[in-house]
Amino acid sequence: MSEFIVSARKYRPATFSSVVGQKSTTATLKNAIKTGHLAQAYLFCGPRGVGKTTCARIFAKTINCQNLGADTEPCNECESCKSFNTNRSYNIHELDAASNNSVDDIRTLIEQVRIPPQVSKYSIYIIDEVHMLSQAAFNAFLKTLEEPPKHAVFILATTEKHKILPTILSRCQIYDFNRIQIKDTVEYLESIAKNEAIEYEADAFNIIAQKADGAMRDALSIFDQVVSFSENNQISYQSVIDNLNILDYEYYFGLTDAFLANNVPKSLLLFDEILNKGFDAHNFINGLSRHMRDLLVCKSNNTVQLLEVGQSIKEKYIEQANNCTDKFIFNALEICGETDVSFRLSKNPRLHVEMALVKICNLSSEKKK
């Protein structure tokens, strides 16, 4: 049996052009390398799993490449690139500040910074989760960060910029990484599935992208999990929602049809079925609010682009939105919001949600009167 490598490592970008969802940041870094305007210290900040450490490694590899291409990408043929690709480069140093956050750790780093690189032009120091450094460690790091040797470049990465001292921030060029859009995540997962000869449904990857919440690393982890769960290398929409325990859109479409028909028994029976499948009532009411919001954005051709679902589900939303009045959606959203706020105070959560469903059903009967 061949050794399995998780997708987050196997498909980790190796060039700026392969980084997903960070075009402005990668373009700025490439221009800085091309013009030779390299800063002494950089701060990469943003949500987890969006490519901060990956970009730091690509940047470190690129500025030391001895034969940069016209597109400012590393050649992968010079000694510096080869040593980086085989994890034997002595010019790129990574420090995990979460486990090396003391003054002594920083003092050791400062002593190491003084040593010039042996092969390449720069020594790059990547400090991950830099906000975990202690106050004393930050203070010990200040002077070196402000006036490092010419051969030293610092790249700090963090998910919590607000925890970093202003004196540190003022010494760095700051790059804010974006959450990766659902569309970009889906396209990347599709390219991986094709490469791995895996059959898939586009709606399945859309669910994975929503669950990942803008983090590509999370999306790839979920992808591996779903592949393990699925049979015959086939990823279907149903297998994803079963594996991730996500409430199917069809329940919300069915509930809305029951609301519009003033069918109270059907709405209560659907809610009972949802509870019997193990779904939380509070999450359900939040999901119903989101469904009503999605119906609202489908009422206009200008806002339908805000709907982040697969094409087949989008068509269902547009069709159902045409059957709903604006007033019905507004009132339903108001009822869901009130139910969400008062949910934790309720001594009978199930009855609390059921009363909300009855109220929404009565919206259509009031319209008829």
Shape field = elongated
Strand order, biggest sheet?
A: 2-3-4-1-5
Q: According to CATH, what is the topology of the largest domain?
A: Rossmann fold
- In the CATH scheme, the class of the largest domain would be Alpha Beta
The total beta strand count reads 7
Q: What count of structural domains?
A: 3
Q: Can you describe this structure in just a few lines?
A:
With 369 residues, the protein is α/β, with parallel strands linked by helices.
List the helices and strands and how they pair.
Layout: H1 7-10, H2 23-35, E1 41-45, H3 52-64, H4 79-85, E2 92-96, H5 103-113, E3 123-128, H6 135-146, E4 152-158, H7 166-169, E5 173-176, H8 182-195, E6 199-200, H9 202-212, H10 216-229, E7 234-235, H11 237-243, H12 249-260, H13 264-276, H14 281-297, H15 311-321, H16 326-342, H17 349-368
Parallel strand pairs: 1-4, 1-5, 2-3, 3-4, 6-7
Structure report:
With 369 residues, this protein is of the alpha/beta class. The protein folds into 3 domains: 7-176, 3-Layer(aba) Sandwich (Rossmann fold); 182-243, Helicase, Ruva Protein, domain 3 (Orthogonal Bundle); 249-368, Up-down Bundle (Zinc Finger, Delta Prime, domain 3), CATH 1.20.272.10. The protein has helices spanning 7-10, 23-35, 52-64, 79-85, 103-113, 135-146, 166-169, 182-195, 202-212, 216-229, 237-243, 249-260, 264-276, 281-297, 311-321, 326-342, 349-368, and strands spanning 41-45, 92-96, 123-128, 152-158, 173-176, 199-200, 234-235. Strands 2-3-4-1-5 form a 5-stranded parallel β-sheet, with helices on one face. A two-stranded parallel sheet has the order 6-7. Helix 9 crosses helix 10 (216-229), helix 14 (281-297) packs antiparallel against helix 16 (326-342) and helix 16 (326-342) runs antiparallel to helix 17 (349-368). The protein is elongated and about 80 Å long. The termini are far apart.
